[in-house]
Amino acid sequence: MTTPGRFPEPYGQGGGANLADILERVLDKGIVIAGDIRINLLDIELLTIKLRLVVASVDKAKEMGIDWWETDPALSSRARRSELAKENAELRERLAELETGRQEETGRSLETGRRQRADRQREADRPPEEAP
C-alpha cells in the first residue's frame, strides 16, 4: 500500500534480488523454454514450427551433454583446424592417386615409344626386297 507523497518502489528492489542475481541463478540452474506453433487450414496441417530454447552457462550445458559449439567450425577454431586438416589429408590422397596414375601412364608411354623405336630400327636394318 502506498502512502500519500511516496511513489511505489520499483519492481525487484523489495524482493532482495537484482538482475545480476537472477541471471546468475538462471545460468547456474539452466532454463528450458519450449513451444510449438501449428498452422492449420480446414483441419489440414500446413506448417509446424517447434521451438526449443535452452539458457544455461557453458558448464551447465556440458553437464547436460550439450556441446555442439565445440565441433562447429563456424564457432570453434579447434573444429576449424580439424576440418582443414581432414580436407588437406583428402586432397593429398587424391593428389597421390593422380600422380600414381600419371606415372603408370608415363611408364606405358615410354614402353610404347621403345617398341616403336625398335620397330623402326628393324625396318631400317632389313635389306630392301628385290622386285620380281
TrEMBL record:
Any Pfam family: Gas_vesicle
Region (Disordered): 94-132
Transmembrane intervals: none
UniProt key word ATP-binding: no
Keywords carried by this UniProt record: Gas vesicle
Subcellular localization, as worded in the UniProt entry: Gas vesicle
InterPro entries: Gas-vesicle_GvpA-like, GvpA, GvpA-like_CS
Keyword Heme among UniProt keywords: no
Primary localization class, coarse: other
Family under the similarity heading: Belongs to the gas vesicle GvpA family.
Protein name per its UniProtKB record: Gas vesicle protein
